[in-house]
Amino acid sequence: MVDPKFMKFDTCALHAGYRPEATTGARSVPIHQTASYVFRDTDHATSLFNLERAGHVDSRISNPTIAVLEERVSALEGGVGAVCTASGQAALHLGIVTLMGSGGHIVASSKLDGDTNHMFLQTLPRFGITVTLVDPSDHKAIKRAIRKSTRLVYGETLGNPGLEVFNIPAVAEIAHQADVPLMVDNTFATPYLCRPFEMGADIVVHSLTKFMAGHGIAIGGVLVDGGSFDWETAGKFPTLTEPYTGYHGLDFAEDFGPAAMICRARAEGLRDFGACLSPMNAFYILQGIETLSVRMARHTTNAQSIAEFLKEHPSVDSVVYPGLSSHSDYELAKKQLTKGCGAVLSLGIKGGYEAVRIFIENLNVFSHLANVGDAKSLVIHPASTTHQQMSKESLKQAGIRKEMVRLSVGLEDLDDLINDLKQALRMSQQ
Amino acid sequence: MAEWVINHKKAFCATGGRPGDAEQRSIIFIHGAGMDHICWNLQSRWFAWHGWSVLVPDLPGHGRSEGRALLSIEQMCSWIGKLMDAAGIKTTTLVGHSMGSAVVLHVAADMADRVDGIALLGAADVMPVHPGLLEMAQRNDPQAYELVTSWAHGQQAHFGHNQQPGIWILGNARQLMRRNRPGVLFSDLNACNTWTKGAKVIGKVKCPAVIIVGECDQMTTPKRAQKVVDMLPNGRRFILQDCGHMMMQEQPGQTLDALISAFVKAV
């Protein structure tokens, strides 16, 4: 009996979504820098617009270069399809508005990226969507927070900046018991370290700007549909299960089955909100994804070594990294992140904010900027930057302290990184 | 969508996004083993929006239709006849994929006066199934879905580059298979495996027939498809380039163009 043969992860990272085109034979994915596409005839045009034929009509809705990236990420995550967006925030927004409108409710982990926290607590409520933040380790609280109007449970594979490990199987079970899908932001882990669909998640979002691309030169996001959530049985997602007047009565669940959510996200979400990725950025991101496995392996070993170095350093009062046994989610990380815990870690520096300031300003190899996942090492002070707009209460809920510094560990030589940290820590204590 | 009650069970049919009309020419699309109406979504929409009355049934036990999966191709043929009666269809064009193509052959042979043309996609005169796959399907082992997904798609489709933007064809096919109720895939595969009347029914088909075959189809090979063409009095063959057994997804445009060429341009 022959086994099923599918391309493995590393091969998908290089090949999924693209075959060299017959016309040119181009081995690399071409950049289709075009706004629109010539139709064969008027019937071809009508059929494409009415979703009777597959193809491209306008690069706001789809584009051949971007489509390669969408298939590639779907293949790596194990989904049915994806829609790329202008940024990770746009992907998150697209996922939410595809599932719900005014009156919808989200139960989300309180351990969130600062911008996501802002979207959830400040911006979405203006459009009638409310969010309840819950400590992701308190599963009873998650269950209690789910209401009749809840349409989504949301969490980050690794919290930012506290690196809390989101228990995907446990939370997925709670969400599914309530007929609600689980969406996971897998930006910090990437599918190399964690495949949320295999653990029960239904939707995955990424900021592709970060580890997926790995070069810090292009902003992009992606929404990936796992295709396993039963929208019909849940009976609370009319955008997917009822005729849509915006497409002459198209019922996405009836016509697209497992791909209902992602097809609606493209057909409505990109058409009406228009937060599309550019083909050039898709090309840049594809170049990064080709080396995802080798980069993530190096990122992770460098980060683990740095966490262990910092843990022993006398100027450091705390190190937050789930690869250390001191982290509250260490055991969960061993189960859920079997290849390592990623490359973001946080540390507290003795001496308060002034010591933090001196530390950051004296780093030479680490760049002081608001990003993670670059091949180059990065540093930032979340409380005064990325999470600045959060209320004191939200900061406390998210576990963000004034003396906390976030590092994104890059691919440089480990000795150079440790030497850089050593000298900056020394300066911080003078 | 449309629903009828057949054999005391709900029978679901997609209609390509708009209701049919008794005055319009009828076309029925019949899915293959472990599939449902969704596999025809693009092609059925095109016909529905181009003046045809479209029915895309979920065979019993599949998709949104109730009941247990039927045990033989002959039973499926009888069920399609009942569906046509329930829907008030006097004559129709039939399109079938894989197992569905065997059903189409039987309907065209047994109800010749009610069928004005047929299209057979991924067709053969016999459909033997690997005993190992049958055994896995009988155990409801999810690996059976993986095997079917792997074999049914041509080598090139494994790389993706789907005409439907952003859809990962293997992931989508896998999830479609996983939606099957326990026992359904086995029942379908067993119906294919025990189908022995292929040559006999093919000899009885009189209406115009087109056979659409993927050049890389490992399950119903171009050679087998040619045999069917040779046995039909009015058979024509379309070979789809760069395509395996799942032509409606692998080459949706070529598949639709072949159907248009067979049934629309021919008219």
Topology:
The complex is a heterodimer of chains A (430) and B (267).
Chain A: H1 9-15, H2 42-49, H3 64-77, E1 81-85, H4 88-99, E2 105-109, H5 114-123, E3 130-134, H6 139-145, E4 150-156, H7 168-177, E5 182-185, H8 190-193, E6 203-207, E7 221-225, H9 231-234, H10 238-241, H11 252-256, H12 260-272, H13 279-289, H14 292-311, E8 316-320, H15 330-336, E9 344-349, H16 352-362, E10 367-368, E11 378-380, H17 392-398, E12 404-408, H18 414-428
Parallel strand pairs in A: 2-3, 2-4, 4-5, 5-6, 10-11
Antiparallel strand pairs in A: 1-7, 6-7, 8-9, 9-12, 11-12
Helix pairs in contact in A: 1-3, 3-13, 4-12, 16-18
Chain B: E1 2-6, E2 9-14, E3 25-30, H1 41-48, E4 52-57, H2 73-87, E5 92-97, H3 99-110, E6 115-121, H4 131-138, H5 143-152, H6 169-178, H7 184-193, H8 198-204, E7 209-214, H9 222-231, E8 235-240, H10 247-250, H11 252-263
Parallel strand pairs in B: 3-4, 3-5, 5-6, 6-7, 7-8
Antiparallel strand pairs in B: 1-2, 2-4
Helix pairs in contact in B: 2-3, 3-8, 4-5, 4-7, 5-6
Main traits of this protein?
heterodimer; A: 430 residues; alpha/beta; Aspartate Aminotransferase, domain 2; seven-stranded mixed sheet; five-stranded mixed sheet; 39% helix; 13% strand; B: 267 residues; eight-stranded mixed sheet
